[in-house]
Amino acid sequence: MFNPFRYIADFLHLVSFLILILKIRKTRNCLGLSFRTQEIYLAVFCVRYIDLFMYFVSVYNTSMKLLYISSTVFIIYLMKFKKPYCLSYDSASDDFPHYKFIYTGAAVLALLVHTDLAPFELGWSYSIWLEALAIIPQLHMLQKIKDVENITSNYVGALGVYRFFYIVSWIYKYSLTGDVCWTSLLGGIVQTILYADFLYYYIISLKSGKGMSLGV
């Protein structure tokens, strides 16, 4: 079944990676970026795509999975190991206790809301909830900084819009087939809610043409 909203969401997801990589390379720093969020995203993709080379769906599907993983690994490399970019990483501001709240919280949610208790299915459900919560360290960091660089705001904005289109794609699929994955839908809704405040200020900054500043 052709679902145009899914392809739009996939494209926006790739755009978010590109924006982030260009931001780091252009400014030669990673100020305002959360390494912890990128670490969580890598965990999301590794858990979700653990069957990458076990089952083949399509060239497009496999290519997108590899792009997500490789792009995240490259971003982590730039932020943590590649000079001069890694020298500007602000670990003091990137201090959200993600092991305590994100990884544990996602595990609890996966046990409560899942597609199946089979190992692969439970792992997939865990990755959905982990992704839903992954942006929290980044939002926490930006809230402390207050004034957000335009490129950084574009990156987070692209992530928020891509997740919105995934929800639209699930609604579209349901309208055609009557099938709905409640784990994906609920995870997507939670993720969109987390973005809501940021997107509000992001839209205001786009309309005003001024830099973005988060509310208190």
Automatic annotation (TrEMBL):
The chain crosses the membrane at residues 6-24, 66-81, 101-118, 154-172, 184-203. It comes from the Eukaryota. One of its GO terms (biological process) is protein retention in ER lumen. One of its GO terms (molecular function) is ER retention sequence binding. It is found in: Endoplasmic reticulum membrane. The keyword Endoplasmic reticulum applies. Belongs to the ERD2 family. This is ER lumen protein-retaining receptor.
